[in-house]
Amino acid sequence: MYGRPQKLVAEFIGTFALIFFGAGSICADQLLRAGGGSGLGLLGVAVAHGLAFGIMVTALGHISGAHFNPAVTVGIWVTRRISTFDALSYWAAQLAGGIAAAYMLRIVVPEDAWRAVMLGTPQLARDLTRGYGMLIEGLLTFFLVFVVFATAVDEKGAFNKIAGFAIGLTITMDILMGGPLTGAAMNPARAMGPAVATRWWTNLGVYWVGPLAGGVLAGALYDKLYLKKS
Description:
This protein is an all-alpha fold.
């Protein structure tokens, strides 16, 4: 049984990896395009995020549950599988990991590249309102947290041992659809880290309200339908 410090370090490392490799892939795409290359493209960025999250879930899931996302934590919390204090501690570790990763990207990525994409800070598509942005982020996060519950929380799930694979693919799928619209953060820590490092706060509320609402709805729904004993 792992104690709270070990769990929080795992949450920090997992979230750091997601932002470092996920947002870092957006910076890498910009570097390639600036050099005359074709870039990674939407598929490459989506795969980078999915791989980073999936691998970290597989590596650290047995330690902390591998939330790496305040929206996942709030879904676990609303179903009373984690205490309020532990949930807030997880949030602190996740946000710290995201911010640390963003500042590390500022150090290792050429300034022209990271400034061009604001370190991968998610942004709304032109003419997309904040309301629709929240709705899209909420829907994307709903499916992410629903899959987390189905594969990593539900003890009767047939695919518990490959939860990281399923969750990583869900993130990839979500980014392929939502990336051009909202950036498909699905994660307040994913949005907050680069925003803090670049001081780019535009529409940041979208990436808190939408994912948290989606996480609460997915967690409560799965718990009510499939985990409550009759």
